[in-house]
Amino acid sequence: MADLLAFFDNDLPEKLKGNPKLASEIKAVYVFDITGVGKWTVDLTEGAGAVSTGGHEKPGCTVTIAKGDFETLLDKPASAMMLFTMGKLKVTNVPLALSLQKLLS
Length: 105
Prior knowledge:
The two termini are 14 Å apart. This protein has a 5-stranded mixed beta sheet with strand order 3-2-1-4-5. The mean pLDDT is 92. The chain is built from 6 helices and 5 strands. A hairpin with a 2-residue loop joins β1 and β2. The chain has one domain (4-104): 2-Layer Sandwich (Nonspecific Lipid-transfer Protein, Chain A), CATH 3.30.1050. The protein is of the alpha+beta class and 105 residues long. It is globular, with a radius of gyration of 12 Å. Helices cover 44% and strands 25% of the residues.
C-alpha cells in the first residue's frame, strides 16, 4: 500500500526533480485535499515544480479524496476513472485532472 505522506514528502518531489519536463508539460497548480488528513499544493507553473503543505489561493484543479482511496489511486493509477464515477474522487477541473496520471504513474 502506498504511503500518502511519503508520496508528498519524498516520491513526488523526487519525480519532479528527475523529470523537470513534467512541470512544463502540465503548467498548472493542483491542490490535493485528502479528507481528514490535510492539503498539499503541487505547483507546476515554475521551474521543475514544487510540492508544499497546505492549500493555494487559486488552484487550477482541486482534487478531493479520502486517504484510503488516494492510496488506492497511488497503487493503481488506472483506478481513477472508477473512483471518479463512484463519487470517491472529486475534481474541480476535469481537463487538468486528466493530466494527473502523468504525476501519479
